[in-house]
Amino acid sequence: MKSRHTSARRTAPHGPALRRFAETHWAREPVVVSDAPVLGIDPADAHALFLMAAAHPESLHLATTDGFLSEPGPLLPGRTDRDLDGYVARLASAPLLGGDGWLLTAADPLHRDFSAWSRVRDALAGLWRYVGWPVVPVAAELAVGDRHHAVAEAGDPGAASLTWVIDGQLTVRVRPEHTGTEYELHAAAGDLVHWPAGSRHLDHRTGPCTTLRVSVPARTASALPLVTEAVRTLLRRHGPHPDTPVTLPHPLPARADGRLTLPTQLAYSARPLADTLADPGVERALLARWAGLRSAAGLDPAPAPRPAVPLTSRHRLLCVSEIIRVATGADDALWAANGQVWPVRGRAADRVLSRLRTTHQDTTVADLARSSGLSDDSPHLHGVLRELCRSRAVAIAPPEPHP
To answer: Can you list the alpha helix ranges (DSSP code H) found in 132-156?
Structure first.
């Protein structure tokens, strides 16, 4: 077993370790993988993520053996905690805990730090290239705890789990529902714990331990929330909605043979739903959602776009992230990068994309304009480049000096 301060190994995120894991372990049985794909998150990164999450305490949950604390307040990470070790030491002597074990979890903390989010996204993307890309969001949970032992089985049996041990040691008891067999897995810093969908688990920390767990939905019904949200959004646009609630007669009218008659108000209320389901906008909304998830390797939510930067013809741009293009018409498409999606029109934009994808050195806005047949100050060109910059698909270098 490695000590608490053992550093996670550094190997190529798309190297042989990923292929071995995909071919040997993915979606088979619970396992600890010691030559795991690199996560790219160390204890210092985890500490920074917890500090950012503490500014949104609704995303944090602190539990002891007695259950969750409704108002953890001063027990949450703060600026006076120099690092995770300092935070663990502070809670070990906290009077409110009385020496009890504890577990702090942060739901979906990665989107607040693009660098951390993109490293985890890259690790996941390397795996998806071998096992297939998820079409629904995958959720991440960051956890740190000390001497905490779960007493109730947890986890979504409809999702597979990937748990990277960032620091310390973790024991997990996993019970796949289809076999009834229980596995006891022991992992240390740098290890990856994986179990397939259809499993329940119990986590045990005998000492300080930090983990990042990614849950990957694996059942068809997991897509229902995406479909429901797309339909709901379009349904709102179909208005106008009545100013007063729809009321139904009571008792419901009945025919002579006793069968109930469907009230006309109810049939009228159902008509907009039928119209929405037939609207091609539902498919377009789902396509846009898929494009964003594909560019994020499913990791959701994605970081917010960065502020727009006014570009001149002498600014230099370099493509640094994969750009997904999904055609929606003869000359129309959706582009996506780093979880952001936007519509693009025209073949000139495709020539810009081709140049960015095939050029391994930074190129000026003027060069991109010439290769696409547009002028340096074309609003269309600058609109395309603005969204690429905001999504962080391209890196921006300072303008070239005038000759």
So the answer is: none
DSSP letter at 75 equals G
Answer whether 209's CB lies under 8 Å from 144's CB. Answer: yes
Q: Classify residue 144 as left (phi > 0), alpha (psi -120 to 50) or beta.
A: beta
One-letter amino acid for residue 19 of the chain: R
Give the model confidence (pLDDT) of 145-174 as tens digits.
Answer: 999 999 888 878 899 999 999 999 999 999
Round the average pLDDT of the chain to a whole number and report it: 89
With cut-offs at 50, 70 and 90, classify the pLDDT of residue 8: very low
Q: State the greatest distance between any 2 C-alpha atoms of the chain, in Å, as a whole number.
A: 93
What does the block give as tokens for 33?
């993988």
| 352, pLDDT greater than 60 | yes
For 322-334, give one letter per residue: b (16+ CB within 10 A) or e: bbbebebeeeebb
Calculate Rg over the CA atoms of the chain.
26
**Position 132, amino acid:** G
| CB 124 within 8 Å of CB 138 | yes
* Residue 101 · residue 145 · CB < 8 Å: yes
- CA dist., res. 401 & res. 403, Å (int): 6
- Helix, coil or strand: residue 313: coil
Report pLDDT digits (tens) over 23-57.
Answer: 988 998 999 998 877 788 999 999 999 999 999 99
In contact, 155 and 30? CB cutoff 8 Å: no
DSSP helix, strand, coil percent of the chain (3-state; round to 5): 35, 25, 40
Q: How many Cα atoms occupy the beta-carbon half-sphere of 280 within 13 Å?
A: 2
Contact 84, 3 (CB under 8 A): no
Whether the Cβ atoms of residue 36 and residue 2 lie closer than 8 Å to each other: no
The reply to whether the predicted model has a pTM over 0.85 is yes
Rounded Cα gap, residues 69 and 174, in angstroms? 26
Length of the chain in terms of residues written: 403
Taking the C-alpha atoms of residue 188 and residue 202, their distance in angstroms, rounded to an integer, is: 16
Neighbours of 265 (CB within 10 A): 13
| β 67-68/102-107 pair status | unpaired
Q: How far apart are CA 160 and CA 222, in angstroms?
A: 12
> Which residues lie below 8 Å from residue 345, measured CB to CB, with a gap of 6+?
331, 332, 333
140: which 2 tokens? 């991440």
| Pair 42, 190: CB distance under 8 Å | no
